[in-house]
DNA sequence: CTGGTTATAGTATCTAGTACTAAAAAAAGG
DNA sequence: CCTTTTTTTAGTACTAGATACTATAACCAG
């Protein structure tokens, strides 16, 4: 029944890789009670690269990820902005944005897109959100592309009144009224 | 004038490390036109770890970072939750949350904390945000600790009316009224 | 021109592997 | 039960990218 045992061991190996990818062949060998050579054969068969390569890849991915978060002054992709008037932003709902259970997007992501857009359309050096009135009309799911449209409806002193409406492919899913305040 | 040259070279080395930390001693040696040994002496003096250690650290940081994002079902730290009644959440404003220019927190982070908390206090399997009424009272800066308190004020059918008030060390910085809708 | 700093050279050693060969052990088939 | 095949273990040579250490060369200044 070694044929079964091997498959099971390789499955265990794969699981281990996902959970803790920092183990050397030696440690893995001890963990699975086989020799180092067996581990290496298994890695070869399964196409799992060596520890250093694994770590390297993680570090590389990390770099790009950190960058994309750091440069995340704006949530969503600004498609078109007419400063002081209106703007359009696009955002795709990814795996990280949804609840595992329901695959429904966490509310604050939809909010973040709208809030970022509202901020982007203001023709002022620095501004903060003052008031927001928000309505989530229907839940948004993974994979959906959200298009948010912002329109400045009124400016009074240093206060900007902005409407943002967000649609998915077929209908309006969210709307918000912001009052943004420009500083200084 | 070798004394000056050395300092300059070490400064160059540091800059290189920041920009592209994936270079081996050998590549660095070629880049700075010195021998490998010189590079190693410099690294020793400057306390720069070897390539593999550098990569490892990046990968480790990445993992914890990814985890904290992935497990980010809840934004902020839940200190105390009385299901169906009230809850308290703590969040520290970090570098990534603020605008570079002003060091003021982006509005959606404060919102996210409140929204997550509102969701957490509901005694229902799944719920989404329906409506939110938000007021940012004063801008929040890097390093501040935000304490959000949520209170369920009314339940009508599948609708939960929740107040969230967020304070920093000294005053109230944000308040929100949520209507959350439990699904099914 | 001599002394001290800075740079280079070279060797032994380490880790976590690859690549390869050989042999032992286990399981399956007949 | 014996043979064949599969699986596992053992062992050697070699690699990259280092550390640690010693020795020597180059330079520059007083």
What would your notes on this structure say?
The structure is a homodimer of 184-residue chains. Chain A is an alpha+beta fold and 184 residues long. Chain A has two domains: 2-70, Winged helix-like DNA-binding domain superfamily/Winged helix DNA-binding domain (Arc Repressor Mutant, subunit A, Orthogonal Bundle), CATH 1.10.10; 77-182, Roll (Thiol Ester Dehydrase, Chain A). Chain A is built from five helices and six strands. The first copy, chain A, has helices at 2-19, 25-32, 36-46, 51-70, 107-121; strands at 77-82, 86-92, 127-136, 145-156, 159-167, 172-182. In chain A, α2 packs across α3 (36-46). The mean pLDDT of chain A is 89. Chain A binds chain B through residues 22, 52, 55-56, 58-63, 65-66, 69-70, 72-73, 75, 96, 99-102, 104, 106-108, 111-112, 115-116, 119, 126, 128-136, 139, 183, and chain B through 22, 52, 55-56, 58-63, 65-66, 69-70, 72-73, 75, 96, 99-102, 104, 106-108, 111-112, 115-116, 119, 126, 128-136, 139, 183. β3 (127-136) of chain A pairs antiparallel with β3 of chain B, so a sheet runs across the interface. Chain B binds a DNA duplex (30 and 30 nucleotides) through α1, α3 and α4.
């Amino acid at each position: 029944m070694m044929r079964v045992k091997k498959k099971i061991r390789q499955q265990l190996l794969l699981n281990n890789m996902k959970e803790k990818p920092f183990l050397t062949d030696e440690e893995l060998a001890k963990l699975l009670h086989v020799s180092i050579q067996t581990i290496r054969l298994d890695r070869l068969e399964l196409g799992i690269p060596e520890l250093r390569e694994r770590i390297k890849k993680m570090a590389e991915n990390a770099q790009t990820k950190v960058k994309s978060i750091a440069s995340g002054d704006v949530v969503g992709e600004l498609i078109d902005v007419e400063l002081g008037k209106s703007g359009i932003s696009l955002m795709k709902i990814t795996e990280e944005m949804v609840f595992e259970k329901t695959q429904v997007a966490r509310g604050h992501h939809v909010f973040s897109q709208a809030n970022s857009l509202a901020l982007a359309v203001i023709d002022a050096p620095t501004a903060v959100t003052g008031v927001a009135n928000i309505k989530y009309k229907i839940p948004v799911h993974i994979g959906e592309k959200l298009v948010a449209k912002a329109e400045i409806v009124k400016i009074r002193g240093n206060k900007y009144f902005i409407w943002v409406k967000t649609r998915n492919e077929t209908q309006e899913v969210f709307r918000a009224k912001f009052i943004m305040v420009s500083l200084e």
